[in-house]
């Protein structure tokens, strides 16, 4: 299968993706992520994920961009200030956190995967992962930088730092320490991976940022 020509700019802080579209070629892009495109690139919006995707609170639309009457160029800017990575799937499967999908070859199937109530609830994360499978290019992003980890036997990652992991890795969510440490130490739940594969982690997680910003929110003066 033909691979896309692409480049990254401004990694790792505000990664920006430029993809060259051959004539007649289509690329799938997360809704609202398109920054610029040539005038001969046509866009269609498609509903993806159905009711499950709706419940995640994330975008439920994926836009398809097609170069018509010649080659074209598209640039893509994810919402999160952070890094972006590329992987070419060769009839493989990768699982992404529910906000990590950026773009892919149209041959890549993008679907949601139910984590299970206990895993989703106690991890503090949402209840769905994105399952990307098939053959073709896939791009994903993070909040913060991205580190790729080769897992040979076991590995433990804070749930808020997980960006993606390959199929074949087993995982189990558990708390760190006792319940006192959960509420007082700032540490919560971790994902314990076992088996062999790859895990991508992000160098920051969003919850500490939102907690930091909370103190600067204007408050209503009742006086």
Topology:
Elements: E1 5-9, E2 16-21, E3 26-30, E4 34-37, E5 41-47, H1 50-55, E6 61-67, E7 72-76, E8 84-97, E9 101-104, E10 109-114, H2 117-123, E11 128-141, E12 146-151, E13 154-158, E14 162-166, E15 170-175, H3 179-184, E16 189-194, E17 197-202, H4 206-214
Antiparallel strand pairs: 1-2, 2-7, 3-6, 3-9, 4-7, 5-6, 8-11, 8-14, 9-11, 10-11, 12-17, 13-16, 14-17, 15-16
CATH homologous superfamily name? Mitochondrial biogenesis AIM24
Mean pLDDT level = 82
Query: How many domains, in number, for the residues?
Result: 1
CATH topology: Double-stranded beta-helix
Number of helices: 4
What Rg is obtained from the alpha carbons, in whole angstroms?
Answer: 19 Å
CATH architecture: 4-Layer Sandwich
Summarize the biggest pleated sheet: 10 strands, antiparallel
Number of strands: 17
Our measurement of the CA-to-CA distance between the termini, rounded to an integer number of angstroms, reads: 67 Å
């Amino acid at each position: 299968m033909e691979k896309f020509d692409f480049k990254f700019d401004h990694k790792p802080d505000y990664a920006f993706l430029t993809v060259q579209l051959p004539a007649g070629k289509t690329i799938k892009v997360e809704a609202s992520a398109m920054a610029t495109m040539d005038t001969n690139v046509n866009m269609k919006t498609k509903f993806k994920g159905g009711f499950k995707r709706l419940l995640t609170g994330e975008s439920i639309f994926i836009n398809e961009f097609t170069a018509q009457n010649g080659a074209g160029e598209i640039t893509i800017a994810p919402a999160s200030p952070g890094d972006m990575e590329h992987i070419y799937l060769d009839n493989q499967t990768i699982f992404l956190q529910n906000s990590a999908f950026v773009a892919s070859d149209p041959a890549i199937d993008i679907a949601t995967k139910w984590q299970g109530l206990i895993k989703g609830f106690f991890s503090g994360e949402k209840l769905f992962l994105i399952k990307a499978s098939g053959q073709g290019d896939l791009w994903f992003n993070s909040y913060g930088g991205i580190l790729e980890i080769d897992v040979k036997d076991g590995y433990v990652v804070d749930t808020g730092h997980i960006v993606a992991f390959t199929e074949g890795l087993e995982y189990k969510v558990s708390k760190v320490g006792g319940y006192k440490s959960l509420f007082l130490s700032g540490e919560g739940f971790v994902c314990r991976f076992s088996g062999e594969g790859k895990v991508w982690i992000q160098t920051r997680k969003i919850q500490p940022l939102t907690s930091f910003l909370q103190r600067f929110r204007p408050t209503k003066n009742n006086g």
